[in-house]
User: Fold these one by one.
Assistant:
Number 1:
Amino acid sequence: MSAAVETKDWATIQRVILPSADQPDTVSLYADAGSASGIRLRENDELARTPKLPEDKLQMFSSGSQQAHFEDLLTRHSMRVRSGEQISFGTYFNAFPASYWRRWTSVRDIRLVVRTTGTGTVTVYKSNARGSVQRVDGVHVDGDSTSVFELSLKPFGDGGWYWFDLAASADGLVLESGQWETAATDGPKGQVTLEITTMNKPDFCLNNARILSENPDVLENVKEILIVDQGTQKVEDEPGFAAVRDALGGKLRIINQANLGGSGGFARGMYEAVENGSDYALLLDDDIVVEPESIVRLVTFADHCRKPTIVGGHMFDLYNRSVLHTFGEVVDPFRIVPALPHADMETRHDFSVANLRQTPWLHRRVDVDYNGWWMCLIPTAVIKEIGLSLPLFIKWDDAEYGLRAREAGFATVSMPGAAVWHVSWIDKDDLVGWQAYFHARNRLITTLIHSPYPKGGRVLRESFQSDVKHLVSMQYFTEHGHIEALRDLLKGPGDLHEVLGTKLPEINALKSQYPDAQLKDDVDDFPAPKIGRGPMGGTVVGLPSKKQLIPWGIKTVARQLIKAPGPESAERPQGYLAHRDNRWYRVAHYDSVVVSNAEGTGASWYQRDPKKLKAMLTETTRLHAQLFREWDKLARQYRSAVAEISSFDAWKKTFEANTKDGD
């Protein structure tokens, strides 16, 4: 603990924050009860890091985290600790991610300042990359107290956090404020343009604008809040818009443009951030709820980075708010698919079940290839050097940009303690339907540009396998999209800007040709299934083993090509499948089946059609063979085109052609 005499100026780099009154289900992300020693991790590192068995997890969490009392949260920055109780701030939002500051900034010395009222103790802890908890310092406090702890970041090369606990005596203790500081610098703080791309989610957009207006302290360095509205349901038409606009004091601007997808909206945000002289563009999705303090944390961290660095926030599940989607992502270079940075990491970690101090893998620093554009801060210095997003409409634009930035020498950091709540992928299935075109095409474009392997590694093989799965699953509309993606890919990159606003309407216009693309609200809207329990007599069909997969696939495709579906299958489905049971190796046994969608909002009728299967299988085989032959030539074309199609001039022409009058 330091002396009270100040010898230099200090600047706050992270404040203790607490949840707003309408989010009691997020308390575990901010504060929890119980001492650090009471839940110390076992030193059996392998078991602690990878508790695969349920009984191992139960043993680890048997002394589990306890919820802090929600009614003890006094303000956004203060809370009461009840007599005889202990509260830890070793939590996602309030522990200090020391290893990230150690790795990416020049900061080596920090201090913790804790202001309290009442009697009790303040104890500081740290962890290492293995998640082991170590006591650093502590002090007894009485009355109005300011406790200052000077701390070093040098031991945090591979991972680790700092945090503090409060323990109250018989009279109770109140945390008035807590903050982490470092030596102040002479340079100005970075200015940021905060941009939200939206498509018919005006309620979400206005809610986030309202959250920002209610937290004006986080907007100090926000030059402009920009909403790129690409929908028909306008944010400006929402009830309460005028009041929120006025509360933001002239910082809110709306641009209405045609639907150019996420890449078109985010590229507009990047473009405008450079044009208005901002240091950063902060990109936000529309279907989120933002933790406003994250804005300050991202900008502060980026200001201290040794060189321009993309800094992203994490994503929590909007409908299960203590659940983290992932702690960081990389791109598997052999398959060009998102992957986890290390084997210990788990997706969908629930902090209400196991807090930060109970979860060793959360203490290892995670280095990433990209951060999702649900929340991502991009320095305009990076944008000026490598350009804007590729015109991909949706899917793979964020990953491709991260890979492009890395190749130019700019790192991406997924920053703990900065996050949004976002609609979970669990309630979506964007590998089928109209989005399948963009998934297939943009993954291949990313592979052509960035794959270090001949012929793109395993991507072509997986692409063809995916087509076969869709075909035996009677997902002919999805497969039509895949085939169109291959055809367009083979044309080269020249018309990516031209089709940016037209491709989606073209794809949607095909829905009427395919029963599997036609959604009805209720299964009773379809004919009742015939008597029976499906083609397998109700037997659960499992995934074929790797040894059986190829023979099974050949047999299944041959059966679907040769054997005509029964005439009654066009009149009545053979059964009904919930979305979770909609697996290609199960659906392939049906001639006709009704399948619900991922959102639970409706269902479609899948009907087997050997003619469609034969024609599409022939075409995708031909296109994949052509793509294999022309791979090297196409790779050169796409790589050489990146600078042009991501340039300010190219995007300016697209914006001018697609911006609504008056904007």
Number 2:
Amino acid sequence: MPKRPSLAESVGAGRRAVRVTASAAAGFYPAAYLLDQPVTAVYALFTPIALGVLSPLPGSGRARAVTVLWALPAAAALAALGTALAVTTWAAVAGMLLVGFGLAFGAVCGPRPAGAAPGLLLFYILACFPPFAPQTLPQRLAGVALGGLLLALCERTVLPDPPQPSYRGRIADVLDLAERTSVALTRTGGAEPGAGGRLRAAGRELRFSRLPAGVRPTGAGRRDRALAQAGSATRRLVDQLAALCEMPPGAADSASRQLLRGVADGCGGAARSLRDRRPAAGPELIEEMIAEFLVSRETNPAGRGARPRELLRQQSAVLTIAVSAVTVRTAVALAYGGRRPVHGLPREQFWYAGLPAVRLFTVRLSGNLTRRSVVFQNAMRTALGLCAARLVAGSLDLSHGFWVLLAVLTLGRTTAGATWSTVRAAVVGTLAGALAAGLLLVEAGGATEVYAWLLVPMMLVAFTVGPLEGPAWAQGLFTLVVSVAFAQIAPVTWRLAEMRVVDVVTGSAVGLLCGVLAWPFGARAETRRSMAALLRAAGPLVTATAAATAGDGCTGGPGGEEADRAVRLTRHRLRIAEAAYAQYRTEPSASGSGTEPDYLAALNFGARVLVGAHWLPRTDRVRELSGAARHWLREAAGEVEAAGVRAAGFPAGGVRIRPEPPPSLAPGSPPGVLSLLSDMEVWLDALAADLRAGAASGGRPR
């Protein structure tokens, strides 16, 4: 049973309907009745519909208005291109292929391009159909400009939506909680009961799935990349703090308390910088405290106490928390400090810090220019479907053939099953709407004033109810809207409703055929494949990191070319897997499955491997490793790598892996060896836990 819209969703849809209706009516009526410019009236009507309904732009009213103004030059260029290519069907089809793929693929650059893409496609679709009338281009452009400016004005002033919570604000709130918890852990009583659960719950609120699309930092620019990295590092930090809170109680040593105070100061400073949107101080102070902590841990080892193993693990946990705090501070500094060098940090972690904006967008586009990218697959499916629809409409000389392409554009989904479900509902709704429109056209005849009075209330109802109630209501009510609108432009009969039914059914058939032939299972198969590729790519980096930590090499130094390649490959696979998973979670079929692996654990495995590769080999610790310790490092890392390969097959019984504890964790061992092996043990245990969870099937996917 479909989920009923909430009160907030209904109110939001009503506000949007008022803004779109006001801007469409303010452009349509003067152009049609005062200026007697029917072409201008049509484009003034459809521009707010394209950018306000077909493309529900994300963000606040001010942000949506800016996006509309930014999109107007592109809309005008597409209208001009469509007007020129309407000379022949094949020219229009070729243009449709390029425009459809370019706009759909460009959505990878961020939520605003993604939101505007469907609406921008409509401008080319409207203009590329016969008659070939280049002399009407000035009227078309005037209508686009009029409708777009009115929509921008209404988005800014008419019934503005309440402000949405920003992602930076959410990060700042979580960092405030981390600051308070870190301070509490330095005291004798430690953190309050239940602190670990509160920390984990706060971290979960930073997931993109908990945020409106408009506030997710998914763009290709430096600020969005930095904010996304700050959010992921903050989630990692609070999870690590939660684990520290849940460790057996005991008095922390003075070095750990001092480092936790530095973490608290770093979190508080980053939170203030995020709220004020000003450059943050770098992480140099925390890095200095980490260095002092490492020296203190070697000169005053905790291993000489009564519980060496527990204390060593607590120190390793504090160290991982401090490393995450360094990442957070650096990311915040990059988000609001602009292009700057990152000193003292592995370049792979903040590879985007010194690159110009054009290069960052090029990297995003080229990284997804592969058939394994779900963004590429969606763009190809959209472009091919629109091309086929344009060819069919042109070859059969369908009246109002742009409705065929509009049906493909609005009814297409990422899976064949979802497309079929949507098409069925849309066809039923269109038939009902066509019947109502036919009766209206028969009864009203040529009484233009009747249609003029009905247009505004019909748009209000259609643009409020349609987005809330699904494709049946949306297509049925939109059929009434277009019938009433076109009845004011030129004399029509009840056959206009018949034409719309034929066009929608034709477009639905084309869209369904493309859904069956082009990647019919959506992101499900690609998600599984990309997760497997990530697990296989990250495995060699585990062994390379273990070798570098033991002093056999360095991931960024001479002789580390193989490790560098592993870092780049793992990072690339992680991006592709995250994109595939993001789409997978939006598909209806994903929510009902009970046999999928825990893909979030696989993503966490890749991210944790990269973090360890960045930091573990960079510590200046004594490497007085015995032969047995070196053998354990090689064996444990190799076991994790082999388990990653097995996990990539997602076996039915899951993956069994639990690395043996290091042999040298005993009183009397060299202090540097104790701390070194403790850090590696904590890291490898966490990786093994990710693999055990990620490879298991049968649980509810998360």
Number 3:
Amino acid sequence: MTTTITPPSDPAATLPEPPRPVRRTGAVLALARFEVRELLLQIPVLVFLALYVVQVVARLTRQEGMDDYPVLHMVDRGTQTDPLLLAIAVLVCTNAAALRSRKHGTVQQFDVLPLEPWRRTLAHLLSVVPFAALTAVVVAATFTREALKPGAIGHGSLGELAVGPLTVLLAGVTGVLLARLLPSSFVPMLFVVATYLVIVIASAVGAGGGWVSRLSPIQFSGISTGDEPVPSELLGRPADWHALYLVGLCALLMCAATLLAGGRTRLLKAATALSLAATVAGVVGQVPRDADALEAARKTASTTPQKVQSCRTYGGGSTYCAFPEWNGVRDDWARVVDRVQSAAGGTAAKTRLTVRQRIDTTGGLESDTSLTPSTTPGQVTVGTRWGGNRVPEFAVGVATVLVTGTEDTSQDMCDDARPVTIMWLVLSTDPTPMATFPSLRLDDSISGPGQILAPTNGLSLTTQQTTVIRELLTRPHTDVTAQVKAHWTELTSPATSTAEAAKLLDVAVPKGEASCEE
């Protein structure tokens, strides 16, 4: 039997096409985008992201008097704690995403894919970046809104503003790294608890004068919004070095996670060395080198502020001395002094006062230390917060010095006419006296005894004095002002009682016996 072989019509042999090279960079980015969408669908991330944004928006839309004069080197630090819950959610959810294949038993199936394990790890790491970027947008919007206010004080720090976004990035990177080191769903929560304890201990050490707390992502020292502001040069916070430390630490942990997943490229090794160098440089840069000079500067600002302040005299002849960052607020102080002084009589109407800004850092930046009254005649104390209730409180300090001559005599007043005169000077020139009166009292009332707030110790009112003041506010302003000026000598004398002051001002004498122990 004969077999006939028919030659192919095409003599050229047809070879299969070689496989196209896989564009791994594009694949990594595509996987990262997928993981970002997956993270956004996770309930913890979605809830805490929304809560973070709503919290910031609510704060920005809620206007209070002191918000009109934000201290920018406190605003930048205030942005650091808001995204903490978001950071924890990102840590837990990125860890879960990195362990997804192990949980569902699909690890072996990845072996047939073109992406190596370390590239998939890199995609998980990159999925955290959008959340850090979104945090940066919120931080920038918060600070920009405050900085654009006409009454903004001081200046912010880019290093302080970077802490919030870097904390979110660090948390996400840590979640992926923990998945490569200890692949268990319980590890992230244990890590969060351990980190919290470490931060608490580090903060305690930092409060005692140590610098170890600076290795914490967030430096809680001096970050509370309740702390009284101080000049920025007295903070002693190496913000730029701390930001470099966080950047280096984020990059170092990213490199570590990628190396653990099998990455061995020269570029990755070079990035690891560079990030390690940046982290070490950030740590070394935060080591205090001039602690004695900083303490000396704080002591000077607290005890002899005139050495570091500049002064300016305004139209009424009074002098206003402030720390450099508060120079723009001095004209607001001058307006308060002028209006209070316009209701005074005798020589007080032309007295030239010295308004001096004061702080007290002897107990540390976080201590709630009240300022002691000045014993210098004609000197009025003003603090580092302005706006809201601080305006009428400052007016109380001005009126006290106009009536008594010095601040330290405010505690010596009892059942005499001087507290009535002081409160009349303050409230009669206030745009909303009946609303301001309760805000100046600790009990927020306009009856009974009460403690009046001031930049220093303030003063006490008896029930009778409160009654007289309330009655004066119901009478025509011009009539009472004329009577106050006509009887200025008697109304500023410690020998004139509250009952006698009421008679001089044509107000019904309050019933009952006055008691300074009320």
Number 4:
Amino acid sequence: MRVTGGSEGSPLDSPWWRGAAALAAGALPALTFPAPGLWWLAYTALVPWLLLIRSAPTGRRAALDGWLGGTGFLLAVHHWLMPSLHVFILLLAGLLGLLWAPWGLLVRRLLSGRPRAGSVAAALVLVPSGWLLVEVVRSWEYLGGPWGLLGAGQWQVPPALRLASLGGVWLVSLVLVAVNTALAVLVAVPGARRAGLVGVLVCAAVAGTAWLAAPLPERSGQARIGLVQPGIVNGVGSVDRRFDREAELTRRLAGRRVDLVVWGESSVGRDLRDRPDLERRLAALSREVGAGILVNVDARRSDRPGIYKSSVLVGPDGVTGERYDKMRLVPFGEYVPARSLLGWATSVGRAATEDRRRGTAPVVTETPAPARASGERLRIGPLVCFESAFPDMSRHLVHEGAEMVIAQSATSSFQDSWAPQQHASLAALRAAETWRPFVHATLTGVSAVHGPRGERIGVRLGTDSSTASVYEVPLARGTSPYVRFGDWAVYGAVLALALFCLREVIRRPSRRRPSRKPPSPHARTAHASPGRPRR
């Protein structure tokens, strides 16, 4: 056993210290997301983790460093789930952290020892590609969805938003990991610093070119959107009292020439088919403010079994258009995966006691009255809650003709955590990706609106606000490269990794085959003659 500390060794020689270092290094990138919002840290946050994996004495240790770092990252990004899931969050983070174990092997394979310039050049492509593949796999809705993608921390950086319009948040993540990889080479590989410097310059050139040359959406008018945020309403009768508060705030928008009023997730707790009185009240509010009202019904439906979360548009004459039922549910929050095996999670946290039901198709609907600025009905695409984290969903709505994407959300269970700000920041990415304005309306904050370039529109309604606010939202026409070409950055990363794996398989037999050396001649032993001295 090696002695650690002093001049005879490093603390990292101890597996316990090394494990703690891996957890901490993996958690560091979480500071780039709101609320800390240290977006600039994203360009160096992975360097300690990369250097730790690079120094791993064995491939097994590198995989373990990757696993522990991934666990630390997920725990830090999702720590606000602890009140709901308690110890279960540790199990989930540990299981999903395993996705980074192969990434750890890849980093060590390419960067350990004294890598040559060719190996460094390969690392600048493959290490980001490996990271991106991890992000894609964990973005599967049944594994928790794409919350905390590295590129999402750049939601307020205009060049990064321009990159997102080209290749989605995936392209932003690729560039960030490439920069971190190049910096790790500059720090730790003296013989390949030129290659590392070239990598940094290439990444800067990519971002700069996107900023200067990427196409921009063409403005096509504007719409006035009213957001209603009632704030926290708890206790007995909270469902009815929340509705009354939302109605009161909506009346304040009368005479302000709004084109649409948006309420948050679960803003209506009764199915409108069962409660025609509520539908009549909403229709009267619509007539009073002169605009349709997009509400969100969280209730057991009268026409089919189960509880649904549904976006419903109400006009002057009642419900209008097609209702949208939420398609992607929050694991444990709205359903328990494999409930027969994991149902015990309801006894240790606030997991869903009854599974919500899923919708079957996205919906694009029109406002009941034309927008005042354009004279045409506004086509909107609703999403519910964490569906705003999925790039493909807003992209599909724009393909179907949506001029504005609206996410109705509620994060009141995590009111004092990072969650409300993290959730609101996703609106900027989705807007930049699709060239369509994105409205993020919540019950208790943070509510936000972003324009077609991802730019912030108006004021953000914080978690301490109970108010109604009107936003002048610019509209745009045209198709962004990301909407047109989709997840090409992901496909490129997968192709690069596949070619690398194929090359490794082809080269492996030649490495194992023993080298053939010519047989050495038989040694002759010299014997001295009996009467002759040995020389």
